[in-house]
Amino acid sequence: MLTAAPCKATILVADDSERNRELLSDILIAEGYKVVCVEDGERALWELMNGSVDLALLDVVMPGKSGFEVCETVKCNPETRLIPVVLVTGLSSIDERIRGIRSGADDFLNKPVNCQELLARTRSLLRLKEYTDELENAETVLFSLALSIEAKDPYTKGHCDRLSSYSEALGRRLGLAHEECVALRRAGVVHDVGKIGVPEHVLLKKGPLDEKEWAIMKLHPVTGERICSPLRSFRLVLPIIRHHHEKLDGSGYPDGLKGEEIPLTARILQVTDIYDALITERPYRKAFSHEDAMRIMFEEAKRGWWDSGLIGEFEALLCWQQPAVEAVHVVHAF
């Protein structure tokens, strides 16, 4: 076995042939990678689910679970789906390649493996994983920041989680695209992240805000949009953050948009936000019942503030699909 250079990343090699495992391992260790070797699909899956694997090289034909099955399981799990998977195969048929693509494989290597090709593909996929890890870390920081703002007010505990669940479920009920539903889920958490720029004496004031304080509060959607704008993955989230306080009659903020000028996703989050605020106890009032909350929302819709059609759809969702709403949880897919 070759002497290891300084470790760069951990690579899983899964192959039932000891000779193949040693060959791949020697090449990768010489480049400074840490290598974990296993001889079947079950052990490969265990390492991927429980270890710290940065990239997996899976033989297609192994005892127990095949490389296809291991890859598909990994790619279906939110915790492991970003791990790059390379299928190493002696099979060359189009059908086998298509099966590998459908299982979620990121790349293929043909046997016998060429050393330079192996290293080139390994470096490329690990660079890509670094980018996705950075993206995940940035999103995690944003979510943590948003939840820390929520935690300042004991009366808003669980608010972000509920909005995420409600908004995504309503988006799915309305037939929105998957990407828009993901944006709603994310926006449920970060919609008020701009309140980081609102002084605590204003944010936590128990009585009504004065004119100057209200002017400060109205800036938080713009601040939130600016905080989240560097993340390209938040492209569909930004309009929700900026416009969830607009009103259909143009009396909302920050831009005074009217009617369908307000993005549909922003109006969806708006409905769920209002409902959750009404059914949550506040220092200055008790929580409203579901029935009273819906009555108030429909009354305000008649004044031209909210989208009555969306309120009706949300009411139907709460009445008939409550288990589906509860099944959608914020941790599932950021």
In short:
The protein is an alpha/beta fold and 334 residues long. It contains 15 helices and five strands.
What does this molecule look like?
- With 334 residues, the protein is α/β, with parallel strands linked by helices.
- It folds into two domains: 10-132, Response regulator (Rossmann fold), CATH 3.40.50.2300; 152-332, Hypothetical protein af1432.
- It has 15 helices and five strands.
- The chain has helices at 18-30, 41-50, 67-76, 94-102, 115-151, 159-173, 178-190, 200-203, 211-217, 220-228, 238-243, 264-278, 290-302, 308-320, 322-327, and strands spanning 10-14, 34-38, 55-59, 85-89, 107-110.
- Strands 2-1-3-4-5 form a five-stranded parallel β-sheet, with helices on both faces.
- Helix 13 (290-302) runs antiparallel to helix 14.
- The longest helix has 37 residues, at 115-151.
- The radius of gyration is 25 Å and the shape is elongated.
How are the secondary structure elements laid out?
Layout: E1 10-14, H1 18-30, E2 34-38, H2 41-50, E3 55-59, H3 67-76, E4 85-89, H4 94-102, E5 107-110, H5 115-151, H6 159-173, H7 178-190, H8 200-203, H9 211-217, H10 220-228, H11 238-243, H12 264-278, H13 290-302, H14 308-320, H15 322-327
Parallel strand pairs: 1-2, 1-3, 3-4, 4-5
Helix pairs in contact: 2-3, 6-7, 6-12, 7-12, 12-13, 13-14
